[in-house]
Amino acid sequence: MANPVLVEVTRGNRVESRHRGAIAVFDANGRSVFSAGDVDEAIYPRSAVKAIQALPLIESGAADAFGYGERELALAQASHGGEPGHVALAAAMLKAAGLDQDALECGAQWPTHGASAAALRDAAAEPSALHNNCSGKHAGFLAVARHLGFPAKGYAKPDHPIQRLIRDALESLTGAAHDTDDCGIDGCSIPTYAVPLTALAIGFARFGSGQNLTPERAASARRIFDAAIAEPFYIAGTGRFCSQAITAMKGGALIKTGAEGVFCGAVPNAGLGIAMKCDDGATRAAETVIANLLLALVARDNATLRQWANPPLHNRRGMAIGEIRLVEGVLAGLGP
Amino acid sequence: MANPVLVEVTRGNRVESRHRGAIAVFDANGRSVFSAGDVDEAIYPRSAVKAIQALPLIESGAADAFGYGERELALAQASHGGEPGHVALAAAMLKAAGLDQDALECGAQWPTHGASAAALRDAAAEPSALHNNCSGKHAGFLAVARHLGFPAKGYAKPDHPIQRLIRDALESLTGAAHDTDDCGIDGCSIPTYAVPLTALAIGFARFGSGQNLTPERAASARRIFDAAIAEPFYIAGTGRFCSQAITAMKGGALIKTGAEGVFCGAVPNAGLGIAMKCDDGATRAAETVIANLLLALVARDNATLRQWANPPLHNRRGMAIGEIRLVEGVLAGLGP
Q1: Are A231 and A70 a contacting pair, CB within 8 Å?
Q2: Tens of pLDDT along A243-278?
Q3: What is the pLDDT of residues B185-233, one digit of tens each?
């Protein structure tokens, strides 16, 4: 069975392109509140689980030892655009841990933020690993390694103690086995484990609400959640969906994208977790689904979310030529 | 019924993303040689029909009147990268017709060719309509308008005599009605008409082979075909699939991409036409399908096509993390 069409891209009076996928909304006890498509299929969550991957940074004591505040904890769970503010903070996080960018194993990346990439080019400079969208996450990993006395070198490999701590956190939250025989290598070189959307949704329900977690872990999760809410610029950046959606929801939810059309999210007051994957990996479709989901679950009348939920499309002369829209009825049964 | 999965994107041992779509390979008499998915559904061919849209440029006598050679006829059917060579030739085409870039109604676009975009930025310059990937096509339209004494202004609108000539050519080749009530506005502001993949494949079988065309039209089509084969750089540009595939096939076929995952193509010696659309609009999938199709139909052992047919994927440190591949059996029955 094919997953349902979730999002349509129109031109004129016709649907030009279609995006299929699966959506899971679950509570912390594993009860399904909503699902569409095959939510039991294992997917790679990629960067959408960075908030959970940041738990060892709190729980090891490294964040406190190195004086990391909300900005640093936001950047540690970010896929940032490589803007100067992101780059400077990643460098400061490394410096606080007695390291520099040479310790990063994520690889160099041109900033995805256009003006920041242009500024680098204007200066005849090359991007470094600090510009990599995952540099904050990697700085957090290195801080844990330094604080616990693990070797920094090789921290991105699946068998390094840092990656084991992260895998333990992911397994504990999601309740799903994270098997090194069923993992891929992420864009930033760390392992990404294949797990079902259901497990990811349950994991984020627990992460956001603290339910079924020890008080200590619930407090750590809450600190990571609150950091994202307080500093949304450091989660993604200027003009980006994650930053704008987190701001729009005013603390009501945390959402985070991953490459290839993935999103995870937590809606603490409702005790819910969200996980979705667009079959074809399209970000435009995944953002449309999540914006509509958040309108239904959290922020019914928010103007920013409404724009992301149904964006108009324009051509090179600014003529309105179509739109991206949720397929009617896809979220039926969820919200009013 | 959902269209079949044509292309898989893998990471580790697992398929991470999937692309569905439809493929039609027909002869000039409307006989199906191969099809996958719903080939009767109407789609917008976008830039994939530029070769047919160039017929009035020859048939009006404008190309000869303004001294256009193979380079100009290639650029008139191109989606080019905005490289200096493309921009200079588009400007020269306009100048020969007594016009300049102010006559273009395609809108400005940053070059898709990275180094050319960077060079513009370095010069603190803005892109113009000459950098628009369709500037050669629009220059050709304007040349026809000048030669036939039509007003240049408004040439992109559906009811302008130039667009009527183009629509007549498309209808005649494909045998499908091109209805202004079932058309969208393209990125470059001209109409794009919704027609079935079958009709597009038949149209390109006729275009490439000359079958079922008048001798005059067959000769015009051959001249456009030969121009693309002779000057593939002017069809797309440095590093681009269309240019590399046309070069690799050594005259055996013409293929051309359109936005949102569309391709059309002609294989004259076999008397065949090709049309495909990836449901979700993904270029990576459409290129993979076409490369495999060309390996089966035209150039069985070509190394360049083999690279495009099954590209490896690397992360930001250059580690091999997966591949893009055709789903096994998708082209079964076509070729050996």
Answers
A1: yes
A2: 999 999 999 999 999 999 999 999 999 999 999 999
A3: 999 999 999 999 999 999 999 999 999 999 999 999 999 999 999 999 9
Rounded to 5 degrees, φ, ψ at A255 are: -130, 155
Q: Are B289 and B281 in contact (CB under 8 A)?
A: no
**Which residues 6+ apart lie within 8 Å of B201 measured at CB?**
B24, B25, B26, B39, B264, B272, B273, B274, B275
Read off the pTM: 0.96
What contacts A329, CB < 8 A, 6 or more positions away?
none
Instruction: Please give the residue of chain A at the shortest CA–CA distance from B7.
Output: A280
What does DSSP assign to residue A92? H
B314 contacts chain A (CB < 8 A): no
Complex prediction ipTM: 0.96
User: Closest Cα to residue B271, out of B248, B298, B245, B250?
Assistant: B298
Nearest to B48 by CA among B306, B267, B260, B217: B260
User: How many C-beta neighbours within 10 Å does residue B149 have?
Assistant: 7
Mention every residue, 6+ apart, whose C-beta is less than 8 A from residue A247. Answer: A232, A304
Main-chain dihedrals φ then ψ at residue B116, nearest 5 degrees: -70, -35
Q: How many CB atoms sit inside 10 A of residue A63's CB?
A: 26
The token pair that represents B138 in the structure block = 């629009």
Cα separation, B211 vs A333, in Å, equals: 56
> Chain A neighbours among B 103-132 (CB < 8 Å)?
105-109, 118, 121-122, 132
Distances from the Cα of A244 to the Cα of A234, A255, A261, B81, angstroms: 11, 10, 18, 32
Q: Around A34, how many Cα atoms within 13 Å sit in the side-chain half-sphere?
A: 18
What does the pLDDT look like over B230-284, one tens digit per residue?
A: 999 999 999 999 999 999 999 999 999 999 999 999 999 999 999 999 999 999 9
Q: What is the 3-state secondary structure (H, E, C) of B49-97?
A: HHHHHCHHHHHCCHHHHCCCCHHHHHHCCCCCCCCHHHHHHHHHHHHHC
Contact (CB, 8 A) for B278 and B261: yes
Q: Give the position of tokens 């693990």.
A: A150
Q: Which two tokens stand for residue B202?
A: 């038949």
Residues ≥6 apart with Cβ < 8 Å to B116:
B81, B82, B83, B84, B131
* Run of H or E residues at B141: helix B135-148
Report the SS3 class of residue A217.
helix
Q: C-alpha A37: how far from its chain's center?
A: 21
Alpha-carbon torsion angle B161, B166, B167, B172, nearest 10:
130
Tell me which residue of B275, B256, B295 sits closest to B78, measured CA to CA. Answer: B256
pLDDT at site A336? 47
Q: Which residues face A196 on adjacent strands?
A: A42
Nearest to B280 among A122, A282, A321 (CB): A282
Chain A residues lying within 8 Å of B317, measured CB to CB: 105-107, 189
Integer Cα distance of A218 and A269 in angstroms: 14
Per the CB < 8 Å rule, is A17 touching B260? yes
Q: Model confidence over B49-70: pLDDT tens digits?
A: 999 999 999 999 999 999 999 9
Across chain B, mean pLDDT equals 97
Query: What values do phi and psi take at B256, rounded to 5?
Result: -150, 135
The rounded distance, in Å, linking the Cα atoms of B134 and B123 is 23
**Contact present, B335 and B298 (Cβ < 8 Å):** no
